[in-house]
Amino acid sequence: MILQGLTGATLVFQREISDAILRKNYNFAEGKKAEENLIIEAGKKITPPEFIFQSVKISAAAAVRFSKNGEKKEWIEVLLDPVSLDVLEIRNPNKNFFKIVKNFHESLLLPREIGKNIVGIFGVVMLFMCASGLIIWWPKQKFSRQAFTFKLSATGRQFHRGLHGAAGFWFLIPLTLTSVTGIYLVYFKGPSSNKVWHAIHEGSWAGLFSQIEIFLVGFLPLLFSITGICLWWIKKRSRKISA
Length: 243
Fold this sequence. Notes:
Elements: H1 2-12, H2 14-25, H3 36-45, E1 51-58, E2 62-68, E3 75-80, E4 87-91, H4 97-107, H5 112-137, H6 156-170, H7 172-187, H8 194-202, H9 207-217, H10 220-242
Antiparallel strand pairs: 1-2, 2-3, 3-4
């Protein structure tokens, strides 16, 4: 689950990072971007006839994807300047860094159905941990400021418990949403609702704010693992001392 979180965090700003790299490597023409159908036709002109158009994404560059004979086994992606329609690059999208990260996030680089089901189980486990964590955190007495914060000056058990609880409280809702949407996308997704669920899962539904929020959520499994192990170790050590 730690790697699922980290790969998810990596994918949040995929588009922004890719655009920055492209702008650094290529000089783009200035002006109005060409119509989508013209971009697609420009991509078709330089691909072998057996490769059939599948999709187009327009950002800093226009990425036009084709698959051989319409089957999703062999791909070509043509990168075009969306203004001048000059060809920037022809590549295999499956060897793209972010594509590899996405494949790991969605199926652990295993055969798709096997990996997808394991990832779905991770989502269910995380959802259970959200619920059980809230129950354990819930103050037994009246609420106080200490229930929602932690002190940077604290040490040992107090620091780790405070950080664990505060992070869990403040990120409970986005972490729960990420888990629920992840489970849905694995087991229940439908074509008509995919975009909405993907937007919530990826953090793109509310712009930069939700992106930053989901990016930080991606580090929570790692944070919880570290603080949880530290709390267990401190408790174990104190038992040995008192024995």
